[in-house]
Amino acid sequence: MPSKSTPLRAPSTLVIASRQSRLALWQAQYVSDALQKLYPATKIEILGMTTRGDRILDRALSKVGGKSLFVKELEYALADGRAHLAVHSLKDVPMVLPEGLKLAAILERADPRDAFVSPYYESLAALPAGSVVGTSSLRREAMVRARYPHLKVHPLRGNLDTRLNKLDAGEYAAIIVAAAGLIRLDLSERIRLVLEPSESLPAAGQGALGIEICAERADVEAWLAPLHHHRTAFAVEAERAVSCSLGGSCDVPLAAFAQWQGELLHLEAKVATPDGGRVLCAQGQATPSTLAQAVALGHSVAAELGRQGAFEIVQALSLHAVPAVTRTAVLTGSRGQSVSLLQALAVAGMETFEFPLIEIFSTNDQTLLVKAFAALKHYALVIFVSPAAIEFASAHLPLQWPTTVPIGVVGPGSVRALKQYGIAAPLQRVIAPHQRSADQAVRYDSEALAAALDQTLGLASLNRRSVLIVRGDSGREWLADTLRAEGAQIEVVSAYRRALPVPTRVQWTRVRALLAGEPHAWLLTSSQGVRNLERLAQAHLSEAEQSALKRSPMIVPHARIAECAAAAGFRYRRISMTDHKNLTQEAASKVPAKPASGAQPFLSAPAATKPRRAAGVLWLWLIWLLTVAGGLAGGYVLHQKFKAENIQLIERQQTNERALIEAGIKSQQALDTLGQMQTQLVQLTGRLDETQTRQQALERLSQKLTQSRDDWMLAEVEQTLAFANEQLQLTGNAQRVLVTLHHADTQLAASTSPRALAVRKALGRDLEALKATPQIDLMGLALKLDAVLAQVDRLPLAGEVTAPLVVPTARESPTERQLPLWQIGWQRFKAGAMQQLASFVQVRRLDHADTLFVAPDQGYFLRENLKLRLLAARLSLFARNAVQLKADVQGVAAALTRYFDAASTHTSSALESIKQIEQAAADVALPSLEASLQAVRLLWLAFLFAAAVLIALLGSWGTGQVLIIQAPYRIDMSIHLFGVMLVAAFIAFYLLLRLLAHLLQMPARLAAYRMRLRAAKARDALSSALSYLFAGRFTRAEKAARNASLSVENKNAAALIGARAAHQLHEYARRDEWLAQATASQWQEARLLSSAKMHIDAHDAEGALAALSEMPAQSARRFSAQHIALRAHQQLKHWPQVLQVIKTLNAHEASHPLASSWQRLQQVAAEHILHECRHEAQALLMGWHSLPLSEQQRPRTADLAAQLLIALERHKEARRIIEEVLAEHWDASLLRRYIQCAGQDPLPLIQRAEAWQLEYPDDPDLLFTLGGLCQQQKLWGKAQAFLEKALRLASRSEDSVTLRAEVHRTLARLHEELGQRDQASEHYRASALAFELKMGGLPF
């Protein structure tokens, strides 16, 4: 695995497999959010799956296969590549993982304790005798039975929401669940008491999350490494080692809990009998520095339990446990094609294993498919041979299928696939095979489709008509050959291609386990799949495994597949597959179940009796049998011992091989990482050299440009003039160019050099020329040219016959379809003959001589030539080429006058437009700025020319001498040599000055280089600090942040990183010092947000709010600040502020993933507000009206408000609240509360309830409410009628135990008031029985 300091290449996509319960999806989303922070560019998806443990809720886990039922489907998703990782609660993960899978990361542990949840009682000790406690764990059950033998413990299955719903429905007096699950789903308010480990020791791994991956995916393990929490991993592995050593499972009440006490890891474990009569306990502690030492601690504690008798308890429970028989159906269809079959098999209680034998891909070239669907109306029939053909062709299907084109498909699966894309009867005609007689099974193949087409359309009707067949790249040609034999023109296009899949190593491991004896059956749905299975088996399985495969039951739905299976030697059974029901039933019946280990074989005949022998012979036989039995027993014991040692040797060898492979992988990864680092170092060195080279070049250029202010200014003016000239020629915007030239003139005015004056003169001339340029409407002229161009086809030629020719078409009109064929032929012949006669001779008057030689069919070329001239004129117009524009326009006018009819209004209008364009052509041209540009560019040439002239003049002076006298010496020197020496002296002096300037600038350059070096080191330190912070190495992160803070540029960012690291180390004083260093104004918001976040993490809500109060109002409204404020107000129990913050969050972030948690928190806040106002009616009403509308319409909140108002004798307000909520949400609890709103006058409530009865005539809760109200009004007859009807309706449902008990009790009181003691006693007994059954959890 790469080191943490090496930057990992972020994955493009990660898929997380998870169960679909709310808690499991929360856990998967938690891991997704953590990975998203590490890899922001990665696309992370969650693949929700329903496991077999989620589906089987009517039996205890120990009876159906244990906790592994919750992870098998997720592990299959890892094996076949649908997911990269799976997130589990570690207490659900088996102690031994399947081969090829491993735990890559264990996240930091949440609260591992158990939670006591009850709506009425505060603790287990407060429960009355006989109360029912629900739990799904034998560990918790043994704990309760041991400490509270007077309580009843019943199994409780389902996800967390299901368990809480069962508790609220009254099926249990209390339940015991894991506290971590309630806290993660923001249901901590449901916890009445958290059970300490001394009262309920947690299970191994409870509260921790584990991430499972394929062992061969080292890259995924490297991506997950930052999430791994080492201290939690040590504790959890020690706990799991206890369970693994003792062979713990769901059949054994076993608990193990390890917790850190400083650097000491303390481990406690317990094993008990299910009735709690015997509890064994052992403890141990160690200071592990490696994972192996933590596991060793677990083994030592398990050994202590074993010495106390734990192995006897485990063995006894394992003998009594009935192993669940898991039936597996192997699906061999292509992936994604068996979704409905998977669901049907899951409903039937079977486990499914996908082993695709065919992979289907889209074809590389779909040109033929696109062309075929573009011409659908030309086909008399379109045939899709399979649902795959429809799916892969769906991207090219038309939005509306032509109603005149029927569709042929092979089976109902294709009919359903077409229906998904809006193609179904009665709008479209879909032809499929159907059952022809009651005693004949329907077939779905090409033969059956051909019979259906013959019966529906008639194959003879397809003679000489086109038929399109959409299929795969290979397949049977029978249907195409049959239709060709009937005269149809067949066109076959491929929508997909097939390939042989490559199963993974994990999939082959699962296949070998099935072949070793697990009950299973293969579902083969194609002949190609049978052939591929045979090829794969020969390549990957041994001869014994191939033999077992051929003996395995194979289910095939078609005779052709059966023939292929028989040819391959497979044992098969053919069924008729009209739907998945037959296939599911056959799969369930064909899968054999393993007999119990203790079952006796059947005897073919009773044993024959032998005549009695003498006593001596019997003793000899007995001694011989005992000797043989002893020998066999000894041999069996030795064989088992050798077998166990052989297995241990094989396991050790496999362990060594895996360790060697892992070491090789890690070594290769280390080498690859080193190579990558060296490559990156070389690249960085090259980039540094390139940057330094560019910097030096820029410095030299800057020095050159700063040598002369005039040179700089002239260069800038030259660029400005060049840009202005380009803009002028491209856009023609003279006003903008004038502004640019004025700006250049202003720059030149600041200089008094002769060169600047010369440029200003040329610039002035260009300014005057631009000011004198007239304004031309180019777009108007272009529109006129476009109008003439559009009229060219309508301009008549001189003497042209304008009557259009009638060209006969090959299509038949509706009238002709009703005439005989000979009349249709005669009419067409007559029309063609008249047309030919009319075209023989044409007499025209031509006034212009040139048109005399124009043939009748040359008008097309004249018009095209005219269009080209008009387009050329348009280009010349936008290019502002006045000469070319005028020439083109004149050519157009000449052509119009010479060849076209001048008497036509269209021709005269076109000539008028052309004359207007010709008049404006002279003003199209714009002046150029070349004069000013040449003035700037020729200054240097002029200077060089002047220098050359000066040198020539000096040379033409003749042979002058320079006399230098320094007594007693005299020096005669040629004047030319003297001039050269002066120039050389000047150059040497100039170079000396330049050298001196460079030497003076050297300290400043050296200081700048050192500053750049320090900044680079600070940036590296900042990057290291971030890496250490994300990796959880907070001490190193703070040290790196201190180094990064030495740079002013990185000081603020380093301060925030250091503050975060110090906060994680619980060094709050250093944290505040770090925060004080982030003083830049643009970092204030980040500093305050970080401070608030750290305060809220430390449960200092007031400090968090104080930090948020310093933020500007606009920043405080952002999501991060609002979310921190929400948590702070929740900790301080400022419930009105909680509602206000949630309102703001919903207004701006309604689609946020945390919106559901805000909704739950809003419900909790509303209930707290109502409880705080429960002592005063006015305050209670004000609190109710202050709640959001969505919360006022929630039945539970309305029920609480009504209950509190009734306690304050405000029945009218309670009634109004209940009626408003019932108008939106019909709720049974509100109906029962409605009875208490009657007060002194229940009559209006009876009238309102009777109005509801018209809408809900058979609602037992409403009838019970009416009965109670009528009883208050003393309407005894109506009350009894309503109550008895409610009792009859409630008796039909097993979930209405509470309602039946209350109805019986109300009827008993009614009969008491009527003096009917016997009936009252019967109802009282029935009510008591119902309550007893409800508390006992038995079905009624």
Automatic annotation (TrEMBL):
Every Porphobilinogen deaminase N-terminal domain range: 14-220
Molecular-function GO terms, alphabetical: hydroxymethylbilane synthase activity; uroporphyrinogen-III synthase activity
GO process annotations (BP): heme biosynthetic process
Residue ranges constituting the Tetrapyrrole biosynthesis uroporphyrinogen III synthase domain according to the UniProt record: 343-574
One Gene Ontology term, aspect cellular component: cytoplasm
Transmembrane segments: 618-638, 938-957, 977-997
UniProt-listed Pfam families: HEM4 (PF02602), HemX (PF04375), HemY_N (PF07219), Porphobil_deam (PF01379), Porphobil_deamC (PF03900), TPR_12 (PF13424)
Pathway: Porphyrin-containing compound metabolism; protoporphyrin-IX biosynthesis; coproporphyrinogen-III from 5-aminolevulinate: step 2/4; Porphyrin-containing compound metabolism; protoheme biosynthesis
Domain of life: Eukaryota
Subcellular location(s) per record: Cell inner membrane
InterPro entries: 4pyrrol_syn_uPrphyn_synt_sf (IPR036108), 4pyrrol_synth_uPrphyn_synth (IPR003754), HemC (IPR000860), Heme_biosyn_assoc_TPR_pro (IPR005254), HemX (IPR007470), HemY_N (IPR010817), Porphobilin_deaminase_cofac_BS (IPR022419), Porphobilin_deaminase_N (IPR022417)
Record bears the keyword Transferase: yes
EC number(s) stated in the UniProt entry for this protein: 2.5.1.61
HemY N-terminal domain location: 960-1064
Cofactor requirements of the protein: dipyrromethane
Signal peptide: none
Stated family: Belongs to the HMBS family.
Biological function: Tetrapolymerization of the monopyrrole PBG into the hydroxymethylbilane pre-uroporphyrinogen in several discrete steps. Involved in a late step of protoheme IX synthesis.
Protein name: hydroxymethylbilane synthase
Native species: Linnemannia gamsii
